[in-house]
Structures are given as structure tokens and as C-alpha cells.
Design goal:
The structure is a single chain. The protein has 159 residues and is mainly α. It is built from eight helices and two strands; from the N terminus they run H-H-H-E-E-H-H-H-H-H. A two-stranded antiparallel ribbon has the order 1-2. Helix 4 crosses helix 5. The protein starts with a helix and ends with a helix.
Amino acid sequence: MNDLAQRGPLGFKSGKPTKKPRQGLPPVSRKRADYRKSEAGREESAYCKWLHEWKMCCLSGRPDIQVAHTSDVADGKGMAIKGPIRHALPLSFWLHLYEERNRSTFWPDAGFPGNERYKWAERLFDIFEANDDPTTLFLDMQDRANKAFLADILRKGQR
């Protein structure tokens, strides 16, 4: 029996199409073991640990924080693919949930239009690198935030 007789109806040996290779550079996956062991992975782990030690949402001041990767790079790409760690901010659980689903409108409505959130996130990362206290930055962000918008999200989330 020749090779063609063993193939399925679509012309593939198993009868099922195989995945085509992706074009361009592969996205950075932060769940791979080789990334977690790399210098960038260790830096990201240290940064996340540092953010959790402060236990303060940068917008609401609540202690129930999660590290929100605010970059648009991750939109629609799944949980493992994130933007640069320099663009991560600590957000309360409910704010983070809302931000992930409505990133394009969340930041302008919260009082940080355009790419302003990246500037604040990079300032926070610089504070981490200098091993300083981020409380002043968090308080500045909380003063600037649209409190009515944030309170509405938190109120709806806790129902």
C-alpha cells in the first residue's frame, strides 16, 4: 500500500489537518519554565512580590490587589501572553476584572486617558528598582482617579 492510500480524506496521514506554523515572531509566554527561570522571569516575580507586599490598589487603596498587565499587547491572546512588566499596576480584584474586559474604555473613564497609565506604571517600576516606598505614587493616582466611576464598579462587583 502506498503512502497516498494511508492518508485520510483531507490528505493528511491522521485524517485531521495539522496546525500551520505561525508567521512572525512568537509571542512571549510567561508560563513556560524557561521564561520563569530567565532573568526577566525572576525580575517579574520579584516585582509582583514587591507589589503584593504593599497591599494597596493604585486607584482605590483597597488591599485585595492583583497585578494588572495594562498593556494592549495582551488583548485577545489568552492568559499566558502579557505585555511588559513595566506596564503592570496593582489593581483591586473587581477593578482588575473590569479592566481586563474593558481596557479601551476603563483607563480614560478612570481618569487616565491615552497612554498615561504606562507613564504611571513605569514610574512605579522605577520606584521598585530604587527600592523606595510607592505610597506617595499610589496616593497621587488615587487623588487623580474618577472616584464615582471606580465606586460604581466596586459596588456592582460586590453584589
